[in-house]
Amino acid sequence: MSSGAPAAGFGTGALSRAAALIHTLVTVEALLLLAAAPGLAGLLLLGPDPANLPLAAVCLLPLGPALSAALYALHHRSRDLTELHPARTYARGWRLNALPALKLWAPLLTWVTVIAFTLTHFSATGLPGWWAVLLGVIGAGSLLWGAHALVLTSLFTFRTRDTARLAAYFLVRQARTTLAAASLLVLVAASTALLTEALPALLAAPLLLSLLHSSRPVIAETQEDFTA
Prior knowledge:
Blueprint: H1 4-9, H2 14-45, H3 53-59, H4 63-75, H5 86-120, H6 129-155, H7 160-173, H8 175-194, H9 198-202, H10 204-214, H11 216-225
């Protein structure tokens, strides 16, 4: 056997692929937290008072571009241990997607904040109880739309309004993907309520990888039907 044969196969085995995945997840997680750090630090200073919801939304603004860059980096990750550049890929994703992601993330945050503020002050509105249920459903639907929009804006270059329309289209068109995103939202909400609000942030990279995995039908259909 020639001396070059082992080298040619290095970095392509199952163990190497697992190591590459772990390295990528850890790097992307660290960069995501770093990119969102200004807002996350602000959240730590805010109390749990519902009156602070608008300030919390402002603090969460940097999270949108950070999540988008993370999705980009995870989608373009290398399976080869010898070809890992997750930090470089994350930085490229942030440069490409920060502004497009923010154009969708900011209105979504504003809308969800209005709903949350209304629900936390619902007794003062004088509305019937079924309105609270309706607002909760609308809020959940908005978050699911946001999950589709985040994937689309991270991986494709569309105009903002076209991304918004495609995200709404895929809510129903790819119902299984929407249900998978809903299960992730339930998981995040449950871990936040039962354990600590820091847990979803610390597990953001694996959660985003799961979102990418479940969004493969959306990605494939978009590539086939909506790109040249």
